[in-house]
Write a structure and sequence with these properties.
Keywords: Amino-acid biosynthesis, Arginine biosynthesis, Cytoplasm, NADP, Oxidoreductase. InterPro entries: AGPR, AGPR_AS, AGPR_dimerisation_dom, AGPR_type-1, NAD(P)-bd_dom_sf, Semialdehyde_DH_NAD-bd. Belongs to the NAGSA dehydrogenase family. Type 1 subfamily. It catalyses: N-acetyl-L-glutamate 5-semialdehyde + phosphate + NADP(+) = N-acetyl-L-glutamyl 5-phosphate + NADPH + H(+). This is N-acetyl-gamma-glutamyl-phosphate reductase. By secondary structure, this protein is an alpha/beta fold. It has 2 domains: 2-130 and 292-305, NAD(P)-binding Rossmann-like Domain (Rossmann fold), CATH 3.40.50; 132-289, Dihydrodipicolinate Reductase, domain 2 (2-Layer Sandwich), CATH 3.30.360. Helix content is 26%, strand content 21%. It contains 8 helices and 13 strands. The protein has helices spanning 12-21, 77-84, 114-122, 132-146, 174-177, 192-202, 235-246, 291-305; strands at 2-7, 27-33, 68-71, 92-95, 110-111, 126-128, 153-159, 182-183, 210-216, 223-230, 252-254, 270-277, 280-287. The strands form 2 sheets. Strands 8-9-7-10-13-12-11 form a 7-stranded mixed beta sheet. It has a 6-stranded parallel beta sheet with strand order 2-1-3-4-6-5, with helices on one face. The longest helix is centred in the middle third of the chain and has 15 residues, at 132-146. The chain is globular.
């Protein structure tokens, strides 16, 4: 059994990790750390887990009882935690923050998008889990970049309120978010760096703009991204390109029909749909921001790191209604 520790156990991503890992056949959760909730049962925070586990939050991470740790803290907190705590070399690390996603001197984390770096993930000891918007947008664009034919891209993507984290803010509480929409961080979202990094990994000469307009949605979870780029491919060739690229990736479905968000919510699926409008290739990409966009993908990475079947513990049921 893989012994798992979670640091920063009170947030949405940690809650989603617990929901998956409690039922994972190869995992034992041995430590879940939360300074603000130490001594409380996990169901005191993640109320839906009542009756599912008798786990209690710990004040500190016990490195003697873990094989892998998931860092589920706010951006900047993972670097702080790792600088203040000695983690033995045999313990694998999966970081769900933004801290290690961009390549830099001294950064030995592998970028954990399986549809891009599966073989590197298998041999890695440290993973930087991708961002939620970044995952959805990259799934829409990777096949074109791999063909070397990606031009300037225009993206509009809408995300649920859980993408803003558990701590209430002026734009996440119910009375503001309900029956409302708004644009934020237009052309400057923090996930653009990792998106461009991945596109350049596949298409070395890619220097075009990725024009990204993020939108706050009035629903709890899920991301729908739409992207278009100039292309001379026929729609038949484009669809085949996508099907060939994703044929060995179990969680990405190239749909023949226009998808909807409920097909991915509560699952680790990514659905992409390709159409052609005159000279523009148009792609829809959908994921659950908390699962494929965060905790589910983190477990997918853990499976690969420990030599398990990639889908182990991740065949989750969508919410139809």
């Amino acid at each position: 059994m893989i012994k798992v520790g979670i640091v920063g156990g009170a947030g949405y991503t940690a809650g989603e990790l617990l929901r998956i890992l409690i039922f994972h056949p190869e995992v034992e959760i041995t430590c879940i750390q939360s300074t603000s909730n130490a001594g409380n049962p996990i169901s005191a925070v993640h109320a839906d887990l009542i009756g599912e586990s008798d786990l209690v939050f710990a004040e500190n991470l016990d490195t003697d009882v873990v094989d892998v740790i998931f860092l589920c803290m706010g951006h900047g907190k993972s670097k702080e935690f790792l600088s203040e705590n000695v983690i033995p070399d045999h313990i694998k690390i999966i970081d769900l923050s933004h801290d290690y996603r961009l390549k830099a001197d001294g950064n030995d984390f592998v970028y954990g998008l399986p549809e891009l770096n599966r073989e590197d993930i298998k041999s890695a000891s440290k993973i930087a889990n991708p961002g939620c918007f970044a995952t959805a947008i990259q799934l829409a664009l990777l096949p074109i970049a791999a063909s070397g034919k990606l031009n300037e891209v225009h993206v509009n993507a809408i995300t649920g309120s859980t993408g803003a984290g558990q701590k209430p803010t002026a734009t996440s509480h119910f009375s503001w978010r309900n029956n409302n929409l708004s644009v934020y961080k237009a052309f400057s979202h923090q996930h653009l760096g990792e998106i461009k990094q991945s596109l350049c990994q596949l298409q070395n000469d890619f220097t075009n703009e990725v024009n990204f307009i993020p939108v706050r949605g009035n629903f709890a979870r899920g991301i729908m991204a739409t992207a278009y780029t100039e292309s001379d491919m026929t729609v038949e060739d484009a669809v085949q390109l996508y099907k060939d690229y994703y044929k060995d990736h179990p969680f990405v479905i190239v749909s023949d029909e226009n998808p909807n968000l409920k097909q991915v919510v509560n699952t680790n699926k990514g659905i992409v749909f390709v159409e052609k409008y005159d000279g523009k290739l148009f792609v829809i990409s959908m994921i659950d921001n908390l699962v494929k966009g965060a905790s589910g993908q983190a477990v997918q990475n853990m499976n690969l790191m420990f030599g398990l079947e990639e889908t182990t513990g991740l065949r989750l049921k969508p919410v139809a209604f």
